Amino acid sequence: MDFYKNRKRWLSRSSLWLWGFLAGILFLGIGSARGQFSVMWRKAVMICMECIGIG
Amino acid sequence: MNKLRFSVQILFTIFTNGYVYGFLKGKIYQGPFKYTCVPGLNCYSCPGAVASCPIGALQALLNQQGFHIPFSALGFFFLFGSLLGRFVCGWLCPFGLVQDLLHKIPIFRKRKRLPLHPILKYGKYAVLFLLVCVGSLFLFGGFAKVPAFCKYLCPSGTLFGALPLLSTNPLLRSQAGGLFLWKLGILLLILFLSIKVYRPFCQYLCPLGAIYGWFNRFSLLQIHLENERCTSCGACEKACPLSLSVQEISCSPECIRCGKCTQACPNRCLHFTMKSNEDSHK
């Protein structure tokens, strides 16, 4: 109810950062559920040959 | 403010590249912190890096077989971007620090921008789209997709990853060839240009800057302008290393929030605030 009453405030540009922040947490949660952190970790713990100009 | 920013840049670079053993032995950190990303462009193949590079992570996810929306990398972009915007570039990026230090060398007449800046500034969006996204999805090396930005352009990987690793690891050194020379050439060009022009890589090529720039308009951290007290003297624009006008400061995608404008304002009407403000830059 409070959200509906104050919807202009919640949807204004001054609160967009909060929506972005919440979207970030949501994306991290989805990524975690899909095992994407393991993919990132596997890439990050081996020397990336492309990054150092060998691969 | 300048000293504070410099201290934060140094401390954050040391903190996120603090795996000294890696530098000594020519190996990289393989612990659990690499599940997370640092906010700035910091190659995860740097021997000292304790966390992942967000652009590298994005490409690693795009390099998977088939197409998967890279939620984890997007999550970090949204998290850092919505809180800080391009404050990350100005205060927390190790490669930004290197360019800042080089720009302090008192040779050459300094320039804020390159000629054709209005066109060249879109280069970072082209790099983001063509190399980071399209390149990582469709460019193959053998049967595997390659992280095109890391492979062909990223100077951070050459400086923080390749040079320390190749100097301590003879096996890697023996494999360096044409691609390494290409990347070394790009690094030297950018470093040399940084002495004359303020942060050329950040202004024209950095895909991470392109992403965070999008958040500048509404991120939590802003530089607030008190319109009533502003006399339009132009001191902030003169002090801004990117020549942004008072109306563009903070909300422009180019603003890295270095804070030089807040220091230069004689009426102290520009200051950092933790409140996203929609009235201050109307």
Would you spell out the secondary-structure blueprint of this structure?
The complex is a heterodimer of chains A (55) and B (282).
Chain A: H1 2-5, H2 7-10, H3 16-33, H4 36-44
Chain B: H1 2-16, H2 20-25, H3 54-62, H4 71-84, H5 87-92, H6 94-103, H7 117-120, H8 123-138, E1 140-141, E2 144-145, H9 148-152, H10 155-168, H11 170-175, H12 178-196, H13 200-204, H14 207-215, E3 222-225, H15 235-239, H16 260-264, E4 270-273
Helix pairs in contact in B: 3-4, 3-8, 4-14, 6-12, 8-14, 10-12
Protein name (chain B): 4Fe-4S binding protein
Organism (chain B): Parablautia muri
GO cellular component, one term (chain B): plasma membrane
What does this structure look like?
The complex is a heterodimer of chains A (55) and B (282). By secondary structure, chain A is mainly alpha-helical. Chain A has one domain. Chain A is 64% helix and 0% strand. Chain A has helices at residues 2-5, 7-10, 16-33, 36-44. The radius of gyration of chain A is 19 Å and the shape is elongated. Chain B contains 16 helices and 4 strands. Chain B has helices at 2-16, 20-25, 54-62, 71-84, 87-92, 94-103, 117-120, 123-138, 148-152, 155-168, 170-175, 178-196, 200-204, 207-215, 235-239, 260-264, and strands spanning 140-141, 144-145, 222-225, 270-273. The longest helix of chain B is centred in the middle third of the chain and has 19 residues, at 178-196. With 282 residues, chain B is mostly helical. Chain B has a two-stranded antiparallel ribbon. A two-stranded antiparallel ribbon of chain B has the order 3-4. In chain B, helix 4 (71-84) crosses helix 14 (207-215). The mean pLDDT of chain B is 92. Chain B has 2 domains: 2-214, no CATH class; 221-273, Alpha-Beta Plaits, CATH 3.30.70.20. In chain B, strand 1 and strand 2 (144-145) form a beta hairpin. Chains A and B meet through helix 3 and helix 4 of A and helix 3, helix 4, helix 10 and helix 12 of B. Chain B: Residues 221-241, 247-275 form the 4Fe-4S ferredoxin-type domain. Chain B: This is 4Fe-4S binding protein. Chain B: InterPro entries: 4Fe4S_Fe-S-bd, 4Fe4S_Fe_S_CS, Electron_Trans/Redox. Chain B: It comes from Parablautia muri. Chain B: Keywords: 4Fe-4S, Electron transport, Iron, Iron-sulfur, Membrane, Metal-binding, Transmembrane, Transmembrane helix, Transport.
